[in-house]
């Protein structure tokens, strides 16, 4: 069980909002870190308390072994959120691997009667949509090639071989977790789901994104943006506007 002290390792707050009446929990993509959501936190701090999940094996957790299972990641993240503070209604936002993790954490918290009020799933096909993928089985150069292809990694990291080799184990762990993930048959949450996707995402077709709909007992919506897998870096303001509307409507 994650304690309140260790929860601080998992849950990062960059712009505390003590007067907020809602909380946004952000889940990073494979190879990503909590700081990816620093701009989101800055932009939404007037309407929500924004926190981001920090997975083991990166940044200040780089000495920890990465977790190679979505189920274990979800268990640990759910424990951390339980210990963090459950006084505010939660909204989840996850990109790519983070979308699946947000869904699985929502399932766990729902069992406790702490379901998020909404889940935003970005840049990821539905949990029930499976593709055979093997990035986690490639050599280091193969993993790096995939990172370059998707354009979601800080160019400073990709340009620094020493740093890159240091973070590769965590990245490989993330790819192992998401590529070996299989949703339970009929897995659903009660929370409404909004899917956000790029219209030219090589990892998620529009049909695969639309396949999220049966995974919710609530309402479903889908928003399509121009761009690829990391459409949200080019359309940050539009994505932030979607989230802001959720908190202010």
UniProtKB/TrEMBL annotation:
Thioesterase TesA-like domain: residues covered: 25-247
The keyword Ribonucleoprotein belongs to this UniProt entry's keyword annotation: no
Keywords: Hydrolase
Gene3D superfamilies: alpha/beta hydrolase
Keyword Flavoprotein applies: no
Pfam families: Thioesterase (PF00975)
Highest taxon above the source species: Bacteria
Family: Belongs to the thioesterase family.
Protein name (database record): Thioesterase
């Amino acid at each position: 069980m994650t304690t309140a002290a260790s929860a601080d390792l998992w849950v990062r707050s960059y712009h505390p909002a003590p007067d907020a009446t809602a909380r946004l929990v952000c889940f990073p993509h494979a190879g990503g870190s909590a700081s990816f959501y620093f701009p989101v936190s800055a932009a939404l701090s007037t309407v929500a308390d924004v926190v981001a999940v920090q997975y083991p094996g990166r940044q200040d957790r780089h000495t920890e072994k990465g977790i190679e299972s979505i189920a274990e990641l979800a268990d640990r993240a759910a424990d951390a959120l339980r210990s963090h503070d459950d006084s505010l209604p939660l909204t989840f936002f996850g990109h790519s691997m983070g979308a699946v993790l947000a869904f699985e954490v929502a399932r766990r918290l729902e069992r406790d009667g702490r379901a998020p009020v909404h889940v935003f799933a970005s840049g990821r096909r539905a949990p029930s949509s499976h593709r055979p993928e093997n990035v986690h089985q490639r050599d280091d150069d193969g993993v790096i090639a995939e990172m370059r292809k998707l354009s979601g990694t800080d160019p400073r990291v990709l340009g620094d071989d020493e740093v890159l080799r240091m973070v590769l184990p965590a990245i490989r762990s993330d790819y192992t977790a998401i590529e070996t993930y299989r949703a339970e048959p009929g897995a659903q949450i009660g929370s409404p789901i909004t899917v956000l996707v790029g219209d030219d995402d090589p990892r998620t077709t529009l049909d695969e994104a639309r396949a999220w709909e049966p995974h919710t007992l609530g309402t479903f919506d889908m928003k399509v943006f121009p761009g690829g897998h990391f459409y949200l870096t080019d359309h940050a303001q539009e994505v932030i506007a979607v989230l802001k509307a959720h908190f202010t409507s």
